[in-house]
């Protein structure tokens, strides 16, 4: 009799356990089935998919394929080469607007020779071509479009004029919009009042030493015909400089104890306004500014570029425009 009672009880317990297992399976996510040892080994050795980026196993970044890495490296090398060797730059003078200089790398070249050649018209005087106006400190102030040009037989140059401008147009430099040149930091330096006064006395003395006869006209205040500028500091090289126009051209630097020293002087041309500073700017990207000035002796006039000679601290002729003439 006792055996008959035990059997129904065991059956009920078995049914209850089965019901609990089914309910748990319905509510919980099943665990992944373990891989067979051979399958796991094969999966670990499977090669990565080609042509696709993969997640970095540690940092979570996207790892580049070998091909993408090579392309990125090539672009970096091309960008560095372009920075070291930019495209040539084509510069127009202030008055008249004729070729001033061709800058290729760090070399600054003349474009033509007065009365003989003035560079190809298609390059320097192409109608509808765009040119950036550059101010006294090498900053771009606008973009102008050439409306046309006139060939002047004395210089054999096409003197260009811009749309919306009368006569010679703005008295600033121009660089072709397709040039490799880019504007750098301004080289402007603001001297103290005492330094300015010493410079005035210094230039007055230099002018008296060079000028024998009184020049024609009035030069005007020295402050309006002088550009004070900085040259990057280097061993044995002065930092503070001045470019001054008038009856003569003077380039000077501020020496020890606040005394000004002459570096380069251009002789008198007979006019009180024979020389005019145009711009102090880095034309060739070497970090040292070039000096551009305008000269006028009455019958003829032109622009010229000076570059610093690091061994002598003199400013040497680098290029000059064929200029213009009143003849």
Can you give a write-up of this model?
The protein is α+β, with helices and mostly antiparallel strands. It has 2 domains: 89-176, no CATH class; 185-325, no CATH class. 23% of the residues lie in helices and 31% in strands. The chain contains 5 helices and 18 strands. It has helices spanning 2-27, 37-44, 66-84, 121-124, 193-210; strands at 54-55, 62-63, 89-92, 99-104, 107-109, 130-134, 140-152, 157-162, 173-176, 226-230, 240-244, 249-254, 260-266, 275-281, 290-296, 300-309, 314-320, 324-325. Strands 5-4-3-9-6-7-8 form a 7-stranded antiparallel β-sheet, with no helix packed on it. Strands 14, 15, 16, 17 and 18 form a 5-stranded antiparallel β-sheet that branches. Strands 10-11-12-13 form a 4-stranded antiparallel β-sheet, covered by helices on one side. A hairpin with a 3-residue loop joins strand 15 (290-296) and strand 16. The chain is globular, with a radius of gyration of 38 Å. Mean pLDDT is 82; it is low at 1-32, 34-38, 40-44 and 49-61.
Write the layout of secondary structure elements.
Blueprint: H1 2-27, H2 37-44, E1 54-55, E2 62-63, H3 66-84, E3 89-92, E4 99-104, E5 107-109, H4 121-124, E6 130-134, E7 140-152, E8 157-162, E9 173-176, H5 193-210, E10 226-230, E11 240-244, E12 249-254, E13 260-266, E14 275-281, E15 290-296, E16 300-309, E17 314-320, E18 324-325
Antiparallel strand pairs: 1-2, 3-4, 3-9, 4-5, 6-7, 6-9, 7-8, 10-11, 11-12, 12-13, 14-15, 15-16, 16-17, 16-18
Helix content: 10-25%
Number of strands: 18
Instruction: Give the C-alpha Rg.
Output: 38 Å
Terminal residue distance? 145 Å
- Shape type: globular
Low-confidence region ranges? 1-32, 34-38, 40-44, 49-61
Tally of helical runs:
5
Structural class: alpha+beta
What is the H-and-E element order?
HHEEHEEEHEEEEHEEEEEEEEE
As for the number of domains, it is 2
- Strand composition percent: 25-35%
Mean pLDDT: 82
Strand order of the largest sheet: 5-4-3-9-6-7-8
């Amino acid at each position: 009799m006792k055996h008959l009672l035990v059997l129904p009880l065991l059956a009920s317990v078995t049914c209850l356990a089965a019901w609990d297992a089914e309910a748990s399976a319905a509510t919980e996510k099943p665990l992944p089935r373990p891989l067979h040892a051979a399958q796991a080994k094969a999966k670990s050795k499977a090669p990565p998919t080609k042509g696709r980026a993969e997640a970095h196993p540690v940092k979570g970044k996207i790892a580049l394929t070998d091909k993408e890495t090579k392309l990125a490296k090539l672009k970096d090398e091309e960008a560095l080469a372009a920075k070291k060797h930019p495209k040539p730059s084509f510069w127009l003078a202030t008055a008249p607007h004729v070729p001033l200089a061709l800058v290729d790398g760090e070399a600054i070249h003349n474009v033509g020779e007065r009365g003989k050649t003035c560079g190809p018209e298609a390059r320097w005087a192409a109608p509808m071509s765009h040119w950036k106006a550059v101010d006294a400190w090498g900053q771009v102030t606008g973009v102008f479009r050439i409306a046309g040009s006139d060939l002047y037989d004395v210089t054999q140059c096409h003197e260009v004029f811009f749309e919306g401008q009368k006569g010679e147009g703005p008295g600033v430099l121009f660089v072709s919009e397709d040039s490799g040149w880019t504007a750098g930091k301004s080289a402007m330096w603001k001297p103290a009042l005492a330094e300015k006064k010493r410079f005035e006395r210094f230039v007055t003395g230099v002018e008296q030493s060079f000028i024998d006869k009184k020049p024609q006209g009035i030069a005007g205040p020295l402050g309006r015909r002088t550009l004070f500028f900085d040259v990057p500091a280097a061993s044995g090289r002065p930092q503070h400089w001045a470019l001054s126009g008038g009856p003569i051209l003077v380039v000077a630097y501020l020496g020890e104890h606040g005394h000004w020293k002459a570096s380069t002087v251009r002789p008198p041309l007979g006019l009180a306004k024979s020389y005019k500073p145009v711009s102090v700017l880095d034309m060739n990207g070497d970090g040292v500014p070039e000096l551009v000035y305008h000269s006028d002796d009455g019958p003829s006039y032109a622009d010229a570029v000076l570059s610093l000679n690091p061994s002598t601290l003199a400013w040497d002729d680098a290029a000059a425009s064929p200029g213009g003439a009143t003849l």
